[in-house]
Amino acid sequence: MITWYAYLRDLEQRKDREERIRLAYVAATRARERLHLVAEGGDPDTPFRPRSGSLAEVFGFLFTEPVRPAAEDARQEGPAEGRVPAMREVLPLDFRAIDYPLPLHSARERDRQPREPVRPVYDWAESESRLQGTLLHELFDRIARSGFEAAAPWIHPGAGAWARWRRRLSELGMPSERLAAAIADLARMLERILADPDARWILGPHSWSASELALHGLEGTDRVAVRIDRLFRDEQGILWLIDYKLGRHEGRDPEAFLTREEERYRPQLERYARLLREENAGPLETGLYFFYPARFRKVRLG
After folding, report:
1. 255 φ/ψ angles, rounded to the nearest 5 degrees
2. Which residue in 44, 132, 153, 206 could disulfide with 66, CB within 3.0 to 4.6 Å?
């Protein structure tokens, strides 16, 4: 029987491997003409076995023939009669590596936003909110693509939505003892959201719209990829870029909290807007929609 710990450990190992593959791809595609892959092995007479968890493991199938040191090759082959043995090309002793100008951090690392100051919150509560946010993103995507009526089985408790939420939250990893409270909380949030005119406007039909749109572009010399939660063109021809946030706040001043969140995520929206403007020259507006208070905030960019 596979335990939860073993299952989660396997997921983490798979995630690490996918990240190594991504890093290997980024590194390999930097080459302009030639790509040299070098890995240190053991005995040259035995097949090369890359160390588990290394980048060499990603390219392991390429290391089919071990490379012998030049001196060893010279001893084994010996000089041809009447000729001086050819010397292998080696780097001079004063060689210094070029300081390559491109940044070595990934787009994923650049996407990370600074966290709020540490709050006295339990780990399970933070994790629960994150999973609720993931499910709400999925529900918003479903509504935006199929419409409110078609999405009813997923958003109305009477249509069996609670059972679907329970199953999905379990798949995402929420502990069974937290499911009932999380689902009840989710139902209250969704009730407020569905009654909010701004939410219905954002998710409603438009002349052109997209949901969970993957967008690729360049930032300087870096190729980046982002995902936009909601993008649509309104009746006036304005393109709206909306990003969803959980927006949960237990303090006394929710408006001040939303203002801080607006400032916190403004650079992210500015980045998305720059990528969009590469192919869209028309008017563009951006905003944040907060799930927990069911509030839309228009964000003015600099």
Report:
1. -65, -40
2. 44
CA distance 28 to 19: 14
Sheet containing 208-219: give its strands across.
208-219, 222-233, 239-245, 284-290, 295-299
Cross-strand partners of 110: none
The predicted-structure confidence for 141-186, as pLDDT tens digits, reads as follows 999 999 999 999 999 877 689 999 999 999 999 999 999 999 999 9
Domain ranges of the chain: 4-30+37-73, 122-195, 206-302
What secondary structure letter does DSSP report for 166? H
User: What SS3 class is residue 279?
Assistant: coil
According to CATH, the topology of domain 206-302 is Lambda Exonuclease; Chain A (3.90.320)
* Residue 138 CB neighbours (<10 A): 14
Report the candidate in 276, 151, 161, 254 with the shortest Cα–Cα distance to residue 205.
151
pTM: 0.58
Burial class (CB in 10 A: 0-12, 13-18, 19+), 56: buried
